[in-house]
Amino acid sequence: MKEIKIETTLYIYQDLDALPTDIIPLMQKAFKARNRAYAPYSNFTVGAALLLDNGEIITGNNQENASYPSGLCAERTAIYYAGSQYPDAKIIRMAISAGSKNNPTTKPIPPCGACRQAIAEYEIKQETPIEIYFMGETGKVARSNSLANLLPLVFDKTVL
Ligand code: THU
């Protein structure tokens, strides 16, 4: 029996203002997208903003449904739109902000497992890392230099 340890690296910024100056506007676009989320069932709102290598910025937010599983997370709403509109563009980075109407979110909230899997697909397809910044409504912001850091044991096309 052999033990395998997996390490990952995140970088933590004290707050929005501590981010690099070119990242702040992208996160603010994620805030705006979050404010447009349709989340009447969970009251949990998420916004995502993607910067593409063609200069386009794509935003998305969570869209819920009375049939709960039919809803979709913000990250996948945004990345599927990007994939459908700009299939040849590379995603440089993604900014995510999550908030709750029930209680304030003040710590970094990472993308869910299903969204990590979806983002992984595009990172692998484009063969360059996608940088990910994520936060609550306020407070610290986490940066991952690649989706791979958030999903070390990825299920990908090589196993098919
Ligand atoms: N949600 C996202 O939009 N992104 C995530 O990564 C986690 C969860 C949404 C889905 C649902 O509308 C609400 O947040 C509560 O789970």
Automatic annotation (TrEMBL):
<dbReference type="GO" id="GO:0005829">
    <property type="term" value="C:cytosol"/>
</dbReference>
<dbReference type="Pfam" id="PF00383">
    <property type="entry name" value="dCMP_cyt_deam_1"/>
</dbReference>
<dbReference type="GO" id="GO:0042802">
    <property type="term" value="F:identical protein binding"/>
</dbReference>
<comment type="function">
    <text>This enzyme scavenges exogenous and endogenous cytidine and 2'-deoxycytidine for UMP synthesis.</text>
</comment>
<comment type="similarity">
    <text>Belongs to the cytidine and deoxycytidylate deaminase family.</text>
</comment>
<keyword id="KW-0378">Hydrolase</keyword>
<dbReference type="GO" id="GO:0004126">
    <property type="term" value="F:cytidine deaminase activity"/>
</dbReference>
<dbReference type="InterPro" id="IPR016193">
    <property type="entry name" value="Cytidine_deaminase-like"/>
</dbReference>
<feature type="domain" description="CMP/dCMP-type deaminase">
    <location>
        <begin position="21"/>
        <end position="158"/>
    </location>
</feature>
<feature type="binding site">
    <location>
        <begin position="62"/>
        <end position="68"/>
    </location>
    <ligand>
        <name>substrate</name>
    </ligand>
</feature>
<feature type="binding site">
    <location>
        <position position="115"/>
    </location>
    <ligand>
        <name>Zn(2+)</name>
    </ligand>
</feature>
<protein>
    <recommendedName>
        <fullName>Cytidine deaminase</fullName>
        <ecNumber>3.5.4.5</ecNumber>
    </recommendedName>
</protein>
<keyword id="KW-0479">Metal-binding</keyword>
<dbReference type="GO" id="GO:0072527">
    <property type="term" value="P:pyrimidine-containing compound metabolic process"/>
</dbReference>
<dbReference type="InterPro" id="IPR050202">
    <property type="entry name" value="Cyt/Deoxycyt_deaminase"/>
</dbReference>
<dbReference type="InterPro" id="IPR002125">
    <property type="entry name" value="CMP_dCMP_dom"/>
</dbReference>
<keyword id="KW-0862">Zinc</keyword>
<feature type="binding site">
    <location>
        <position position="112"/>
    </location>
    <ligand>
        <name>Zn(2+)</name>
    </ligand>
</feature>
<dbReference type="InterPro" id="IPR006262">
    <property type="entry name" value="Cyt_deam_tetra"/>
</dbReference>
<feature type="binding site">
    <location>
        <position position="73"/>
    </location>
    <ligand>
        <name>Zn(2+)</name>
    </ligand>
</feature>
<dbReference type="InterPro" id="IPR016192">
    <property type="entry name" value="APOBEC/CMP_deaminase_Zn-bd"/>
</dbReference>
<feature type="active site" description="Proton donor">
    <location>
        <position position="75"/>
    </location>
</feature>
<dbReference type="GO" id="GO:0055086">
    <property type="term" value="P:nucleobase-containing small molecule metabolic process"/>
</dbReference>
<dbReference type="GO" id="GO:0008270">
    <property type="term" value="F:zinc ion binding"/>
</dbReference>
